[in-house]
Amino acid sequence: MQCREIYEEALKRKLAGGGIYESSDDPPCSTCMPELLSENEEIVFAYQVVRSQYIMGFSGPVSINQMAIWKIIDEYKIIDRIRAFESVLNLSNHMLSLELKKNE
Fold it and tell me: Are 44 and 25 in the same domain?
């Protein structure tokens, strides 16, 4: 059962019992992590292993070490190597951009 469905069922039970709607009855979507698709499990695992392997510039991290990504792909024998590399690189670039925006 999905998060939204759980909250919807709980709200239905509350309203059926005579309760009233409150904003806290809504699911916490803004703080929720999406479900991980099985096809992306290897990608997320590989990213978690290499996420500290940034190339540092004078003002902080500038990119992920691509050799570290390839090493994980080789060591864990990930089959779709190009997709895995591109996906980990995209994920690390996204996370780096979020971190840089946070620090502005």
Answer: no
